[in-house]
Design brief:
Strand content: 5-15%
Oligomer: single chain
Largest sheet: 9 strands, mixed
CATH architecture: 3-Layer(aba) Sandwich
């Protein structure tokens, strides 16, 4: 369990597209790194060295600051057996914890139901982005999906309670002919009502927010600032989700990967600086994951889909450091030219669910997995 009296909060940042593990956490003392990266390898003098074996990409200075503070966990060799090397299938696996069949229930959707079984708070879980990630999807479980917090929802311009009630009543009557006629329409009707309520609730967050932290003018920074605003409004949100990408670096990787990590690193640092300034950081952790790593040998301009990858946990409650060994780059140890994962992603989920959120992980992640001590 979290040691804080505040309810523990999880922020998930999805690095969409397959982030290149080898150029993110760089094994600079391994000569096989240079051998395999003639086109996209990072020059030794640019690497932000963490110890005598690995370093971070040169644009990840703000992430190194978290490391230096002891608040960043680097989790090596993350994935699952028999990677399909497909964006869509791999994301489905990460989102549903179903590597052997097509899953329909998101692991965080199940977590949301566990946190709020009676749907008393329609903003228990909030996703920042234009669509609902499958990780959050579970029929009957409300999730607020926000693209722009400042202009969110249909009720944001209505100040009088009576007007809001009238519109909600009209919306209810609009759905009344179909609500109850079938499970799908019943779900859609309730989802619409939940979304209206969520819009009304979340719209108060920007007006309650005050901070001296200047976030960068980037899409991921905007999402994380929105998450900070909602968190600091104390609306009872326990799970936040956002994504950034695409990290699908088949070509022109050098400039592309540089920019992606500039944006992510600066946004993450601003987010935690903001929370700390406002005494709102002690009950928040962030998981950063990607669906798979990339091929060990570059293709002359970029890197192709791989298997084993890297994940990060950040926050004041995190015991910083490296977890697990860096997978071997030796040719005989690769699988179809890829790093072999040795840390099942569900073990990370298990640790988060049980040691941070204080819930039983088995029904959420679909089994029993090793539980590293990240906290």
């Amino acid at each position: 369990m979290a040691s804080t009296k505040k309810d523990p909060v999880l922020v998930v940042l999805q690095l969409t597209g397959g982030n290149d593990y080898l150029n993110t956490v760089i094994p600079f003392t391994d000569p096989l790194y240079r051998d395999n990266r003639p086109a996209v390898g990072v020059a030794d003098e640019r690497i932000l060295k963490l110890n005598d074996k690995v370093g971070l990409h040169p644009t990840m200075g703000p992430m190194k600051n978290l490391w230096d503070q002891g608040n960043l966990a680097i989790i090596h060799g993350v994935g699952y057996a028999n990677s399909p090397r497909s964006h869509f299938r791999s994301m489905d696996i990460w989102h549903t914890c179903e590597p052997d069949k097509l899953g329909t229930e998101g692991w965080l959707g199940r977590a949301t139901k566990e946190i709020d079984p009676n749907k008393e708070n329609v903003v228990t879980t909030v996703s920042f982005g234009p669509s609902l990630p499958r990780a959050l999807a579970l029929p009957g479980v409300p999730v607020a999906c926000v693209d722009d917090l400042d202009n969110f929802g249909l009720l944001t311009g209505i100040s009088e309670a009576e007007q809001r009630d009238k519109i909600l009543d009209r919306f209810t009557r609009l759905y009344s002919p179909t609500i109850g006629t079938g499970a799908v329409m019943d779900y859609l009707g309730q989802t619409g009502l939940d979304s209206m309520k969520a819009a009304d609730i979340l719209n108060v967050a920007p007006g309650m927010y005050s901070s001296s932290i200047e976030y960068p003018d980037t899409t991921i920074a905007s999402k994380l600032k929105g998450i900070s605003q909602v968190h600091q409004a104390n609306l009872g949100t326990r799970i936040f989700y956002c994504d950034h990408g695409s990290f699908d670096s088949h070509s022109n990787q050098v400039g592309m990967h540089d920019k992606l990590w500039v944006d992510v690193s600066q946004a993450v640092e601003s987010f935690f600086d903001d929370l700390r300034e406002n005494d709102a950081a002690d009950n928040v952790i962030m998981l950063m994951f990607t669906e798979f790593g990339r091929r060990v040998h570059d293709n002359g301009s970029g890197t192709d889909h791989g298997a084993g990858g890297v994940a990060f946990l950040a926050g004041d409650a995190i015991k910083g450091g490296e977890y697990g060994e860096y997978p071997s780059l030796r040719p005989e140890h690769l699988e179809q030219g890829d790093l072999v994962p040795h840390t099942d992603f569900r073990s990370i989920y298990t640790s988060i669910v049980e040691d941070w959120m204080g819930m039983d992980a088995q029904p959420l992640v679909g089994g029993v997995f090793e539980k590293p001590a990240y906290f």
